[in-house]
Amino acid sequence: MAVNLRVPEFLHPVPGVRLGVAEAAIKKPGRKDLLLIELAAGSRVAGVFTQSAFAAAPVQLCRQVLAAGTQVRGLLVNAGNANAATGSGGVEDARASCAAAAQALGCGADQVLPFSTGVIGQRLPLQRMTAAIPRAAQDLRADGWTDAMRAIMTTDTVPKGATRKVATSQGEITVTGIAKGVGMIHPDMATMLAYVGTDARLTPSAVRRALEDAVARTFNCVTVDGDTSTNDACMLFATARTGSEDVDVSHPDYAVVAAAIHDVCRELAHAIVRDGEGATKFITIRVHGARDAREARQVALSVAHSPLVKTAMFASDANWGRIVMAIGKAGVPGLEARTVSVALDDVQLIAGGEPHPEYREALGAAVVAKDEFTISIGLGRGVAETTVWTCDFSYDYVKINAEYRT
């Protein structure tokens, strides 16, 4: 039911990265649900994670390893079980799974980062996972990206991947990424799992900068239902396999590489919204004329999170009163209705706080009947702006989440 979202036909291999998958029957048998990623020695790795107070055990371990500056050689990802709200036992399980992966990769246990997604509050089926890890290691290959993007899916209906090749002064470099996520999606870091790799010779600080900038303008600008997961993680790894010069943020190649990373992240972020649980509409919300980016985002998210706006969009009902309601409740200090304008694509609904004299219901209805459209909101207070991407709420969203554990 994804909105204009296709399965990627091909993802370019990234020199220095190998991926393997296996079936561990973590939630249900009959599918590949375990992913092992091997990184070449010397890879530079950065990650950003959920801000949830109930951060899952794997998130806790990832933060510790990255903070210690340990050389990362592997990533272990499982679908079907989040290993969140599992206490000290969950941490022990995550450590044990990393030790098994390290043995298969021939590296130290603290050189493997764990990631989990799925049901919260249940311990990992550790024996089944550790039995499957050697099979994933046997499956490691450079062209394993397409299998990898399927292995990390939960309620996703379409696997999500994006890839780019760009020219730099040191030769052509590749940026390839995969992601999963369709529900429990709300910007608070980035509400999903995502893995992006490049062979560019980015310095560790450049990897961190490129990741944080890309996430701020892509994954942190999408929302499906306003709920933030316990397991959110977005990783960027640069294998330094192309070129002889390190690329820091002042290097001429940095802007080119960072732009490619941003483009891959944006495509993945859009894919998450297009495949939002039960989604039938892909909606861009653009707020302009704000005093600062913070209040622009405040208004955009108020509209994007409103169940009344989202259900009206599902019904193709141009009930713009719900949009105005969501703007009004955003809590922007001193916002005056007389300065606000609202449009659906190029159809003006509100101008200067008044219904536009040329607006007709049929014009608005024609816009919201489309599967992609833009809600533009002008605040008339300044020059700051922001863009957020969201989807509608359909009957299927309730059905999917009501039956999530059955």
Ends distance: 21 Å
| Residues in helices, as a percent range | 25-40%
Strand order of the largest sheet: 13-12-11-14-10-15
Q: What is the third-level CATH name, the topology of the largest domain?
A: L-amino peptidase D-ALA esterase/amidase
Can you name the CATH architecture of the largest domain?
4-Layer Sandwich
**Unreliable segments (pLDDT under 50, ≥5 consecutive)?**
none
Approximate strand percentage:
15-25%
Helix and strand run: EEEHEHEHHEEEHEHEHHHEEEHEEH
Q: Main sheet, how many strands, which sense, barrel?
A: 6 strands, mixed
List the total number of helices: 11
Mean pLDDT: 95
Give the total of beta strands.
15
CATH class of the largest domain: Alpha Beta
CATH superfamily of the largest domain: L-amino peptidase D-ALA esterase/amidase
3D shape: globular
Radius of gyration: 22 Å
Structural class: alpha+beta
What is the total domain count? 2
Structure explained in plain terms:
33% of the residues lie in helices and 25% in strands. It is of the alpha+beta class and 406 residues long. The protein folds into two domains: 17-274, L-amino peptidase D-ALA esterase/amidase (4-Layer Sandwich), CATH 3.60.70.12; 282-402, Roll (Ubiquitin-like (UB roll)). The strands form three sheets. It has a six-stranded mixed β-sheet with strand order 13-12-11-14-10-15.
